[in-house]
Amino acid sequence: MNEGEIRKYAALMKELGLTGIEIDEERGYFRLECAQPKVVMADAPVMQQPACAPQAAASYKTVTFRSPMVGVYYAQPTEDGEPFIRVGDSVRKGDVLCIVESMKLMNEIVAENDGVIEEICVENGALIEYGTALFRIKELDV
């Protein structure tokens, strides 16, 4: 496939509002993905405690958990199943937070640390990019 054909398909994607296209021609398989997804929620500013706030016995930090890959975000294991997590849920390191479907593979995304879910930043079925904010998790600041 030459550069002109690639540009033709990229222009078609833009015109139709597509985020990805797969082509299987006699010369081989070709996949083109857009770097800017249409359905991604923007990061909301994180509220910080005022400097004069009294210190608690344990201090916490809010961590933004970001997507490790490009794909489709799923909040539950099946279409009519219960979500893996909800706002306010406690999670432990290794707990499944969601599934990201990438290249026809279902990838379980797990918690990296113990914490409490403060915010879920994307909607079920959303197209996500690498680095998209998925969750805000309150972790114990050790």
Q: Could you characterize what this model shows?
A:
The chain is mostly beta strands and 142 residues long. It has one helix and ten strands. The protein has a four-stranded antiparallel beta sheet, with no helix packed on it. The chain has a four-stranded antiparallel beta sheet with strand order 7-6-4-9, with no helix packed on it. The chain has a two-stranded antiparallel ribbon with strand order 1-2. Strand 1 and strand 2 (28-33) form a beta hairpin. The N and C termini lie far apart (53 Å).
Major sheet: size, sense and barrel closure? 4 strands, antiparallel
Q: What is the rounded Rg?
A: 19 Å
Order of the strands making up the biggest sheet: 3-10-8-5
Mean pLDDT across all residues, rounded?
78
Helicity level: under 10%
- Name the beta content range: 35-45%
Give the ordered list of helices and strands. Answer: HEEEEEEEEEE
**How many beta-strand segments?**
10
Uncertain ranges: 36-56
Structural class based on helices, strands and sheet pairing? mainly beta
Gross morphology: elongated
The number of helical segments is 1
What's the N-to-C terminus distance?
A: 53 Å
Provide keyphrases for this structure:
142 residues, mainly beta, four-stranded antiparallel beta sheet, 38% strand
Summarize the structure.
The chain has 142 residues and is mainly beta.
Ordered list of secondary-structure elements with their pairings:
Elements lengths: L2 H14 L3 E6 L2 E6 L26 E7 L4 E4 L15 E2 L4 E7 L2 E6 L4 E6 L6 E2 L4 E8 L2
Antiparallel strand pairs: 1-2, 3-10, 4-6, 4-9, 5-8, 6-7, 8-10
